[in-house]
Design goal:
The protein is of the alpha+beta class. It is built from 2 helices and 9 strands, in the order ααβββββββββ. Strand 5 and strand 6 form a beta hairpin.
Amino acid sequence: MTRMDSPSKVTRRHVLVLTGAAAAAAGAGLLPGIALADKAAVDAAIKKAAGGATLQSGRITLELPQIAENGNTVPIGIEVDSPMTASDYVKSVHVFADGNPNAEVASVHFTPANGVAKASMRMRLMKTQNVVAVAQMSDGSVYRETVEVKVTIGGCGG
């Protein structure tokens, strides 16, 4: 009695050959790499978020570590100095990173009912890069703050 293997059966040999071929293709540059946002992409995203307003400095406090040992989970705290009244409040804060696959990281929207314009979250950073926060105020003014974060182990596939 002879045994016939099913033609659709995947063997260990098939997996090893396919894995080796994929690794060789990646090493030869045949597979696409991860596209990263650059300064131009971040500047374009900031310009869009600002809506044509002149960017000013001040009023934003960014709390980020100077060195992030693991880019998979980098804590970020954002606070904007504002009275948060019906006539003077922070409408939104946008966060950008110039070394991630996507320049836009997060947006946080506020109303006067928030009382304070403060938020915290965790973000992924692929490599050492600038993190930029842009705050839109109710009077149309826009503020910007930038902090560089050094990343020792990347968190976006790097």
